[in-house]
Input
Amino acid sequence: MTETAREANCRRAREWREKPENQGREAATKAAYKAANPELWQAQRSAASLRYSEKNRQAIRDRANATRVRLRAQVIEAYGGRCSCPGCHVHHAELLTVDHVKGGAHHRTTRKSTREIYRAIVKAGFPADFQLLCGSCNLAKSDRDKCPLAGEDH
Ligand SMILES: [Zn+2]
Ligand SMILES: [Zn+2]
Output
C-alpha cells in the first residue's frame, strides 16, 4: 500500500514528536498559542468537535440509544419491573414509564432527555420519588397524585 500525502504528513509529525529533543515542545507551542489567541483557540476547538459529531453522527446516536436502553432496563428492574399502581396488573417493561411521584413538572420543564433522567436516577441510587407506572395509569394520573383507579382491580 502506498502512503498518501496525508499519511506521510502524519508519519513525519509522529516521528518529530517522538524525538527526545522535541519532547514537550508541541504541548508548549499549543499552550503558547492558546494563551495568545484564546478566542481563536476556542473557535477551532468548537469547529473540531462539530466536525467530529458530523462525521460520526450515526455512531454517536447508536451509542446514545444503547446507553438509554441499558439504563432503562436497570431502572425498570430496580423499581420492581411492574406498574406500581395498586390493583394494576401491567408488568411488561415495554408498557412501563418512569414517573416522578410528586408530579413530573420538574422533569418536563428541564429539557432532559429520558437517557439523562435514567442516568440521574441510577446515579442517585434509585430514589423513592420515582416509581414505575404503565402508560394507562400514568395518563390517568396526569397531574393528580395518583391514578383514579388505584386500589381497584384494573
Ligand atoms: Zn398501571
Ligand atoms: Zn392505575
Remarks:
- The beta strands are 96-100, 130-134.
- The radius of gyration is 26 Å.
